[in-house]
Amino acid sequence: MMDRDHTDRREHRTGVGATAEALLEPLEPLIEYYAREMGELPGRLMMALSFLDDAQLTPGWSAQSAEARQAVEQARA
């Protein structure tokens, strides 16, 4: 979970940075889960691929930028 200091900084951000973070908000729990799981060296590649698959199934995925969606598709290839 995000620490309070990071949350405070995010709340004060405006412009493009704030918009980008707002779009990524639905992915935050998924990112946190995979960050914990990838702490062990074995299986990191498998976990990364699972993250890419799951990211595409996350609500709000279609709201991500075309560049972000393309990057995930290319990373999976």
**Biggest sheet descriptor:** none
Q: What are the secondary-structure elements, in order, as H or E?
A: HHHHH
Residue stretches low in confidence (pLDDT < 50, at least 5 long) are none
Question: Beta fraction of the residues?
Answer: under 5%
Q: Helices and strands: which structural class? A: mainly alpha
Q: Helicity, in percent?
A: 55-70%
Q: So how many helices?
A: 5
Number of domains: 1
Radius of gyration, taken over Cα atoms and rounded to an integer in Å:
14 Å
| Strand elements, count | 0
N- to C-terminal distance: 30 Å
Shape: globular
Mean pLDDT: 76
Account of the protein in words:
The chain is an all-alpha fold. The protein has one domain (4-76). The protein is 69% helix and 0% strand. Helix 3 packs antiparallel against helix 4 and helix 4 (44-57) runs antiparallel to helix 5 (66-76). The longest helix is centred in the middle third of the chain and has 14 residues, at 44-57. The radius of gyration is 14 Å and the shape is globular. The model has no long low-confidence stretch (mean pLDDT 76).
